[in-house]
Amino acid sequence: MNNTSQAIHKLQTNERLLWDIFLGGFGHNLLLIAHDIKLFSLLANQPLTAVGVAKALNIQIRPTNALLTFCTSVGILSFNDNYYSLTLVAEEYLLESSPTYFGAFLELNIANNSTLSFEKLKNAVLTNSSQVYDNGKLFQSHEEEVKLAKAFTHAMHGHSMGAALAWSSSIDLSKYQVLLDIGGGSGAHAIAAALKWSNLQSIVLDMPPVCEVAKEYIASYGLQSRVKTYVSNMWDNPFPVADIHFYADIYHDWPPEKGRFLTQKSFDTLESGGSIMIHEMLYNDEKTGPVTVANYNTAMLLWTEGQQYSALEISTMLSEVGFNNIEIKPTFGYWSIVTACKP
User: Fold this and answer.
1) Bigger pLDDT: 133 or 74?
2) DSSP label at 283?
3) Which pTM was predicted?
4) CA–CA distance, 124 with 147 (Å, rounded to integer)
5) What HEC string does 34-73 produce?
6) Which of 68, 166, 189, 254 is least buried, going by the fewest C-beta atoms within 10 A?
7) d(Cα 150, Cα 209) in Å, to the nearest integer?
8) Which residues make Cβ contacts (< 8 Å) with residue 81, sequence separation at least 6?
9) Domains and CATH numbers, the chain
10) CA proximity to 280, closest of 306, 303, 247, 313
11) Distance between CA 191 and CA 198 in Å, rounded?
């Protein structure tokens, strides 16, 4: 196209935003590669130079420098006197010895990385359908294939444990007796609540293979007497008796009508004075950000039927069925909890 006849005006912006968006997409896969080739466990032993890393991992110096520079630029590694070492973030989330190890979540994304292709994302946009697995049905696949369900549950544990330890220390649960963790997965949130609050019993409600994994995590913390599993379908079966209904990353898996269904079911089940707690990454009320929550919403487009919500949207669901004393509490990183009580 010939632009010579068009007037050239003085630019009022630069293209930095476009470069940030376009080139920022490489970071996801570079993190997965660094994890996959065991860069972090290597540097846990001792700081190394770039040459030392290249030799230990048996890769050439140019890609080694690219990987190390990226990890340093985002704060996963530090660089001093020509030596690379782990930052505290890497030590807490990227080493297998840590109770908040994020590795299984990274491995889930490595195994399903084709889901993030241009073709898959475009198809999700054009068809409004999940693209994960061969059939696009996340939870149906987990019901049919135990191996998939267990791998997903282990991944969600690493995804959840840091946030679980944080929120359970920031909300007063001293007056409650039983927390029902609905769709509770590995039991990360139920475990964290029980660790912090000795008065509390917890129940993890989920599918059979998921509860098997949860039992392993519960036992690893020695909490078998206070945290139990409960095999059930949250849509069709009654909830067991509890005075807290806890939902972590559940509402965002489903469309609004299913969120309203669960909200009504909890309201109808809880006794007067009982509480509901909804743990999610929340949009601002105008739904103009944050960008990480917008990207998490894209992940829901690819993986589930659901979407991220604003605090206003969740609060509205709660008030519509009769909950009151609704509060929004930022708890950890991008996570928040919306709490409400049944009068």
Assistant:
1) 74
2) B
3) 0.93
4) 25
5) HHHCCHHHHHHHCCECHHHHHHHHCCCHHHHHHHHHHHHH
6) 166
7) 6
8) none
9) 16-93 (1.10.10.10), 103-341 (3.40.50.150)
10) 247
11) 11
What DSSP string runs through 21-36?
HHHHTHHHHHHHHHHH
Across the beta sheet with 178-182, the strand order is: 227-231, 201-206, 178-182, 244-248, 275-281, 335-341, 324-332
Query: CB–CB of 181/153 below 8 Å?
Result: no
Mean per-residue pLDDT, 50-63: 98
Residues 203 and 178: beta-carbon distance below 8 Å:
yes
Torsion 281-286-287-288 (CA) sign: negative
Measure the CA–CA gap between 259 and 248, rounded to whole angstroms.
Answer: 12
The alpha carbon of residue 328 and the mean position of all alpha carbons in its chain are separated, in whole angstroms, by: 19
Per DSSP, the three-state class of 112 is: coil
First to last CA, the chain: 67
DSSP letter at 310 equals B
Banded model confidence at residue 3, pLDDT cuts 50, 70, 90: low
Whether a cis peptide bond, with omega within 30° of 0, leads into 255 is: no
Lowest mean pLDDT among 91-95, 134-138, 331-335: 134-138
What is the model's pLDDT at position 5? 55
Q: Which residues fall within 8 angstroms of residue 290, CB to CB, at 6 or more apart?
A: 283, 284, 334
CB count, 10 Å around CB of 200? Answer: 21
- Which residues on neighbouring strands pair with residue 324, listed in sequence order? 341
- For residue 131, CA distances in Å to 109, 122, 331 come to 13, 10, 31
Q: Which of 284, 281, 315, 313 has its CA nearest to residue 298?
A: 281
Q: What is the mean pLDDT of residues 52-69?
A: 98
Ramachandran assignment for 75, one of left (phi > 0), alpha (psi -120 to 50 degrees), beta (any other): left
- On the question of pLDDT at 4 being above 70, the answer is no
Calpha distance 180→190 (Å, rounded): 8
Burial status of residue 152 (CB atoms within 10 A of its CB: 0-12, 13-18, 19 or more): buried
CA pair distance 266, 270, nearest whole angstrom:
6
Residue 332, SS3 per DSSP? strand
